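hey m, so remember when u said the tokens were messed up on ur end? i reran from scratch. heres the input so u can diff it against urs
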Amino acid sequence: MPPTISNAGPLMVLAKINALYLLKLLYGQVIFSTGVYEEAVAQGMRRGYDDAHTLYRFLQQEGWSPTAVDNIPVEIAALPLDCGEKESIALALSLQGLLLMDEEQGREVARMHRLQVRGTLGVLVQAYRQTIIPAEQLRVYFMEIESRQDIWINPSLCRRLLRELGLS
């Protein structure tokens, strides 16, 4: 199985909906950069965000720690992406792994570099398709994503995916 690299977005959303355990079940381990850790955990904890504390505890429990990224390709470093996105794409390129990322511009860059990309909703759908979670749990996760003001995933995308899966 190729390695799985995550940007901050999927980690934060899965922490908000208490679904981080799916990462371990689906991928065994997830690799993330120091920039992603700084954004999702360190800054979040300083700001008092519950999901940052949840993510911190999960990472401690699993023994997952950030990976330093020393070499970001020039063409990626020059892009108007945040530090974590650039580091995540660089890690995925160097490891030839699956990239978990929600941010659309970063996803486009990753696809241009022929990386396999999956967003938070794709992780949840994969868990459903592999019968790790039942249809009802997938619906609950999607409804929570749709209803939360602190998750920036388009609600219409949740509804469309449920329709495509025959679950709406």
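this time it looks ok to me. Strands lie at 4-6, 30-31, 98-100, 117-118. if urs says something different then somethings off w ur setup not the seq
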